[in-house]
Amino acid sequence: MPKCDMKSLVYYNPNVITKQGIDQPGINNFSHFFRMFNDTVAMVDRSGVIKSPINTTSLFPIPTIPANFNKTFEQICDERAIELLERAEKLDVPLSVFYSGGIDSTLLMVSLLKQATPAQKKRIVVLLTNASINENPNFYEDHIRNKLTVDSATMFPYALNRQSMVVGGEHNDQLFGSDVIRRLIVAHGIGVLHQPYNRDLFTPFFIGPTPNPVAMNMWIDLFEKSASQAPIPIRSNFEFLWWLNFSMKWQSVFMRVLSYTPKRNLNQVDPSFVRVNYDHFYTTDEFQIWSMLNQDLKIRDSWNSYKWPCKDIIYNFTKDADYRDNKTKQGSLYHLLVQQLSYNFIDTNMDMAYEMNFEDYYVPNNDFI
Amino acid sequence: MQTYTGLIDIDTNAIMTIQPTMAPIVWLKENAPNVDMMPRMQFPNNSEIIQTIQKAGNFYNYTWNRKNRTITSTEASLITPALIAKSELLHTKAKIVWSMINVINATRHNSRTGLHFQETVYITKRSQAEEFKASGYDERYITNYPYVIYYADLVDITYQEAADDILLKAKLSDQVLAKTEQLRMKYFRLLKQVQVPTQLEPLFDQFKLEAFTNAQV
Predict the structure, then answer these.
(1) Residues of B with CB below 8 A from A104's CB?
(2) pLDDT per residue over B99-120, tens digit each?
(3) Nearest CA in chain A to B212
(4) Which long-range contacts (CB under 8 A, 24 or more apart) does B24-27 make?
(5) CB distance B175–A252 less than 8 Å?
(6) A256, A336, A339 member nearest B180 (Cβ)
(7) What is the pTM of this model?
């Protein structure tokens, strides 16, 4: 394979890395991350603590917390909605919104609908699937069907162009803790969540399906090092898991949809495209600052209470008490992304490639040897 | 009785592979050069010899007699390295394409209904909604579109809303299947291009990743 001029990576497919670099120093231990968390998360450490064997660049530094920050989550949602609606108007393009029927995208829709003028509402295109409709039939019937323009989310790759603005509901999981919290609850019970951080709890939790105690301990050491340098104190088991997701999964979550850009649209995707024509609702600094400062507003004493502030905002708009009281997180993105063709590498120029030589992205001086 | 389908080299009548399912042979017939398909090879009296050949794996050592429907040894001078390589490649491709067919079928599970004639219902429902929409939602002839009527009455919406909903849901379902078709087309083309058996397993591994695992969540 000829040497390509891809720059430092902002996204990579872990399955490719694991196969290509199997014998290279550090790759096997580094790859244990994928077995601990998820074999599709392209780990990019925003905290700057971990020396990865993959040449990556973080595009999303952890924001600095200003003094006297006291905005509520709902305020931030409302202001974000206004910003996005006005941006679509200024660009004079449709505002295509990923809607899964889940809590995050429903809150995104509620925020837009609360703030949109009639003219702005006409610009909204709701991208959905049959599963979206089934996940929240009341919301679809009361607020979407015959009220907003609707299109299929399955063809989303072809909406990634400059004739559109595409917004998803990603990163709310990174703000609130994500599904990994449920794994902890299932493994150890709800009571451990808010107890002081206990490394012994995470040893069996992170061992993975193919035990590698050396790699696991290497990673837990690095996680603890990263947590010790977080801008806020990480005290509990919940906060520890939240920090890992917040600092290490953020970029992968942002970039993964972009990796599905079809070849014919690639010439439109560059750094100026990202965050303008392609964005996610919950990515702003203010959302992140709120998340850092409000650890007590994420989950109470049951998995059902996860993201309860979001469900309260939705309830105030829809008056659907059943959704507020009983809706829990269901993964929906998988069925949207499965069988879609995606690139395996994206670099800082937003250039994309299916293949790269291992030598073009491997960093020998890494923390995993 | 187990049925067998064979793939024959047209020039020599040498057997390239024998498979217990027809689909891979049909695919190879269309996507490999100079081959032909022989259905029901076990007929009239070939089951035993077929099982022997399959265990040995050296299909090219045997020739199919079309007229008599018998299997005999291939003339030694015809067994060239090229013929052997062709047989090995096509035999491995047959197994891989059958595995790919099963994976594609699995990706289409969500589109199955399990109901008799439901596919016909969906096609007619969509067609009626399209006709009603094309008529400008003219309700004077609404009884021509019973599927639209029943949908509207059940969900308690207007006929126009019902037609639009039917068309939206049809579109959403179409596109889920279209994704699987994209996958099938991509990998069947790649499979056709493979010239060396050792390339087949890595291709199948990549195919499985794209079929199920590569969804980056």
Answers:
(1) none
(2) 999 999 999 988 888 899 999 9
(3) A338
(4) B24/B93, B24/B94, B24/B95, B24/B97, B24/B98, B24/B101, B25/B94, B27/B97, B27/B188
(5) no
(6) A339
(7) 0.85
